[in-house]
Design brief:
159 residues; six-stranded antiparallel beta sheet; 6 strands; 5 helices; alpha+beta
Amino acid sequence: MDRNKSKKFKRLMRFINWYPPFLFSGIKVIDYADDFSRFHTRLKLTWYNRNLIGTAFGGSLYSMCDPFFMFIILIQLGEDYIVWDKYASIEFVKPGKGTVYAEFRLSPEQISEIKMAVDRDGKGVFEFACEVKDGDKNTVAKVQKGVYVRRKEVAKPNV
């Protein structure tokens, strides 16, 4: 990753916890890798993110997982690629009764496989899974994300 891109994303990371959907849901990025290949999030159960039965609101559980696989791929592949979330699903396994955590990680090998597939096929949808876990490492929710990636079109000169 080049130095300018690294500075840009480090600046973004200083403010990500102030991003209103995270801030007002009690979501916080608590750790990330220097190369942005891993993110670790936390959701503290509070009065404003509880559902009617006193457990974590499902939308907040999903929100803590929403952008991170897309972020990793976007940052790792760079500006020659278009990356966006295509689909997602969440399975609620047990009630979130306290603070919960999620971790998102893609290896250099996974990034290389994505790049090779997109360079070969022009585009692709890649699926990733993560789990939301409570403080005792029990699974609260399972999330599946489908991330769309394609190469940007190169502008052709007018001749």
